[in-house]
Design goal:
By secondary structure, the chain is mainly beta. Helices cover 4% and strands 54% of the residues.
């Protein structure tokens, strides 16, 4: 199950690795490594160090949305006034020149009046030692240690004359500073014994792994004047430990009959001591039915496997602990001339534990015509229990809106077929082609969050357009993240009847009970293909993929595609999506939960097309000239910017770029 991270009050987005909006970065990289051998190379040592320095200037990502919403008939700058830095700004009225805080901000002002900079230093060191025992050459010991240290610090400054940071009482502006440190320490060691006894091959391995993550940082947010009531500061250190004991044994008889078994015992500090440890076994068997150099049918292997895997990777390091958190700056109490920031309790789930998935697989590998045609066929069944998800808790709703919890069980089944072809193979011409097709079907088999038979399920999938609105639901017997919507009614010409939905339960009232589950984001089928053609020194390759049966909720249209948005009662104009005119929809409330906006999003995408020519031995060892087009083609019926939306909710207002690359590679 996918998860959404909790947003902590007042903290900037990830200090060390901001997700987007970066411009004018400067990066410096230094690295070195050594790999000596000792004792006649029975001991191999590898040491590597890498240091990086990055200076970043971040753009305000809100400028993209503002550029879409801001009245396109308005000039960027107001030549008649120097207010607000000279940028055109929607004002409250003709007689009140204060900026309208509800109106879209000037996108150029967001970019030019926000000074957002950070410096990040990162050091990565790892060392490994591999020793083969002289008295027992089949036994080797391996030790691997690593340390990753990253420190970032930055400031965000906005002048008090910026309209988007206006404050009539305190003066406005922004003067924020922050820092963050991340440390990752790793120690892993194992023993491996590998020996052949006649027709028997044995490979035994056992080991231990320890990993420690530390995150620390602080921030101080304030206005330009440093007003106490507008100032908040905090530090939020956290750490995570992961410990594992693992073992594996591989056995082969005559190289044809293969058995393997493994066992892991993993512990995480994310969970309470009584739920901290998970045991995850696995086993597999295979038989090489055919393994020869036959002219026609040279390889055939039948295999089966079973195993249990664990999932504990949620953003909250302390999901099981009762904690208090500082409130927002406006939740302060004044005592004399001091402002005391309030504390509020966070929600938590004491018995949160590992998500576990049991997998069963049967497969066949084959090769014919001396590997000119090869492939695999797999069928699988997966049962997942104690699903981890970010949900709204009923019992703790007075403490928090959402917590991480185990919500139920899910079943997935499917198959995958892959095929590798070499249609042409001569001295000067080779053509390799690969493709794979996969089918998957998933459904929730149990929900533990509610025993109420009238409860439709667990709502999820937050969207823009109404506080706390969710467009998806988890329900027993249905696919996870199914869309939960009203059935739209249409007139005889096929136009939507605004605000009119089908009374599905025939009780003469259209309400929440008339919502239904309508498709899902996950595709039924996925297809991938790659091709590489070599003619002498010329190479031509491409790669593509396709999804079939996926659906997307177009939240861009429902959030911006209604006519009431064009003119606000607070005296400003906004740009709107073309769908508002095409569908003639007046009110947002009449379209947010309409199934009209859940649309098919099947697609075929070419990821890249590359052509290259190798001027062998012309300069140095060889010179290679190449040209690549990335994301050259997408075929889809979806009307949004991009049909490839992982969670099925399209809030995308920035298209995926198409890149053209010319390159020259020379080796000496």
């Amino acid at each position: 199950m996918s998860k959404r991270g909790a947003v902590k009050n007042n903290w900037p987005e990830n200090v060390i690795a901001r997700p987007s909006g970066r411009s004018n970065p400067f990066q410096s990289l230094q690295q070195f490594g050594v790999n000596p051998g000792f004792f006649n190379n029975t001991l191999q040592v590898n040491v590597h160090f890498k240091g990086m320095l990055s200076d970043n200037h971040f753009a305000d990502r809100g400028a993209i949305g503002s550029a879409l919403s801001f009245d396109p008939t308005k000039p960027v700058r107001d030549t008649s006034s120097s207010l607000y830095g000279g940028f055109t700004t929607w004002k409250i009225s003709n007689t009140n020149s204060n900026p309208n805080g509800l109106a879209p901000a000037n996108p150029v002002a967001l970019l030019e009046l926000r000074d957002d900079n950070s410096t990040v230093k990162q050091y990565i060191t790892n060392a490994s030692a591999d020793y083969r025992f002289k008295f027992l050459p089949a036994l080797r010991a391996n030790l691997n240690v690593g340390y990753d240290y990253t420190k970032g610090a930055g400031t965000i400054v906005v002048p008090n004359y910026a309209a988007f940071a206006f404050d009539l009482i305190n003066g406005g502006g922004v003067n924020n500073r922050y820092d963050q440190t991340k440390k990752n320490s790793l120690l892993e060691t194992y023993l491996n014994y590998k020996k052949t006894f006649g027709e028997h091959d044995v490979d035994i391995m056992g080991g231990y792994s320890w990993q420690h993550f530390e995150v620390g940082g602080s921030y101080k947010n304030s206005d330009t004047a440093g007003t106490p009531a507008e100032t908040s500061e905090d530090s939020n250190p956290s750490e995570l430990y992961m410990v594992s004991l693992f073992g594996r044994i591989n056995y082969a008889y005559k190289g044809r009959f293969l058995l393997t078994g493994s066992l892991r015992r993993d512990g995480t500090s994310r969970f309470a001591p009584e739920y901290r440890w998970g045991i995850f076994p696995a086993a597999a068997a295979a038989v090489k039915v055919i393994d020869n150099d036959s002219k026609y049918f040279d390889k055939l292997k039948v295999r089966t496997s079973w195993g249990i895997t664990g999932q504990q990777d949620i953003p909250d390091y302390y999901a099981y602990l009762a904690r208090y958190q500082f409130g927002t700056p406006n939740a302060q109490y004044q005592f004399g001339d001091q402002f005391i920031q309030t504390l509020r309790p966070n929600g938590y789930v004491r018995d949160i534990k590992w998500e576990q998935t049991s997998s069963y697989n049967v497969g066949v590998d084959f090769s014919v015509v001396k590997d000119r045609v090869s492939g695999t066929v797999d069928a699988y069944l997966r049962n997942t229990k104690d699903l981890l998800n970010y949900i709204s808790p009923s019992a703790l709703s007075n403490l928090t809106n959402y917590v991480y919890d185990n919500i139920g069980t899910m079943e997935s089944q499917g198959y995958e077929v892959s095929l590798n072809l070499t249609p042409v193979k001569t001295k000067n011409v080779t053509w390799d082609f690969s493709t794979n097709l996969a089918y998957n079907k998933s459904k929730i088999t149990k929900l533990t969050t509610s025993d109420d038979p009238e409860d439709p399920g667990e709502l999820t999938g937050g969207i823009a357009g109404g506080v706390g609105s969710n467009i998806q639901i988890h329900t027993v017997g249905y696919a996870p993240y199914s869309f939960y919507v009203f059935e739209q009614q249409y007139d005889e010409a096929g136009n939507i009847l605004e605000g009119q939905f089908v009374d599905r339960n025939l009780d003469s009232v259209v309400n929440e009970k008339d919502k239904y589950r309508f498709h899902k984001p996950a595709p039924n089928y996925t297809l991938g293909l790659t091709s590489n053609l070599r003619i002498g020194h010329f190479n031509f390759s491409f790669a593509g993929r396709a999804n079939f049966g996926s659906y997307v909720y177009n939240n861009v249209q429902t959030d911006m595609g209604y006519l009431d948005r064009l003119y606000a009662t607070t005296n400003y104009l906004s740009n709107i999506n073309q769908s508002a005119v095409d569908l003639n929809v007046v009110s947002q409330g009449n379209l947010t939960f309409s199934d009209h906006f859940v649309t098919k999003a099947s697609f075929f995408r070419l990821d890249h097309i590359t052509a290259a020519y190798n001027f062998e031995h012309l300069i140095g060892q060889f010179m290679n000239v190449y040209a690549t087009v990335q994301n050259p083609l997408v075929v889809t019926s979806y009307k949004g910017l991009d049909p490839e939306i992982s969670n099925g909710i399209d809030n995308n207002i920035y298209p995926r770029p198409r890149a053209f690359v010319l390159g020259l590679n020379v080796n000496f």
